[in-house]
Design brief:
- By secondary structure, the chain is of the alpha/beta class.
- The chain has one domain: Rossmann fold, CATH 3.40.50.
- The chain is built from 4 helices and 7 strands.
- The strands form 2 sheets. The chain has a 5-stranded parallel β-sheet with strand order 2-1-5-6-7, sandwiched between helices. It has a two-stranded antiparallel ribbon with strand order 3-4.
- Helix 2 runs parallel beside helix 3.
- The protein is globular.
- The relative contact order is 0.19.
Length: 121
């Protein structure tokens, strides 16, 4: 099943894991929505400054921002109504996890790249 995946903390830098994840998600047939206020486009795909500015339905949000930044984005994530949020290594924020779980959003603490490579996405 293909999904629409928002990449929170998307990057133009091809050595960054967020960029690698975007390219691999596309390769696997998923639709990606890069989210980062620094960019208009990433690899030719429209980049949104925040989740609220994106009108598409989002199945999964994969997180590539530091824990203090994540805590400021929790309400935006909840309002986006994804069924799942993937917290990649280095992004885990216990307060955010508690709020997202309370909102009924599935939390997966894993590496998106590993999930894709092992057919667990």
């Amino acid at each position: 099943m293909t999904e629409t995946v928002a990449i929170l903390g998307a990057s133009k830098n091809q050595s960054r894991y967020a960029n690698k994840a975007q390219r691999f998600l596309i390769e696997k047939g998923h639709t990606t929505i890069p989210i980062n206020p620094k960019y208009d486009k990433i690899d030719g795909i429209k980049c949104y400054p925040n989740l609220a500015s994106c009108s598409q339905n989002i199945d999964t949000i994969t997180v590539y921002v530091r824990p203090p930044i994540l805590s400021t984005l929790v309400q935006d994530i909840i309002q986006s109504s994804p069924y799942r949020v993937i917290l990649n290594p280095g992004t885990i924020n216990e307060n955010a996890i508690n709020q997202l779980e309370k909102a009924g959003i599935e939390i997966q603490m894993a590496c998106t790249l590993v999930l894709l490579r092992t057919s667990q996405f």
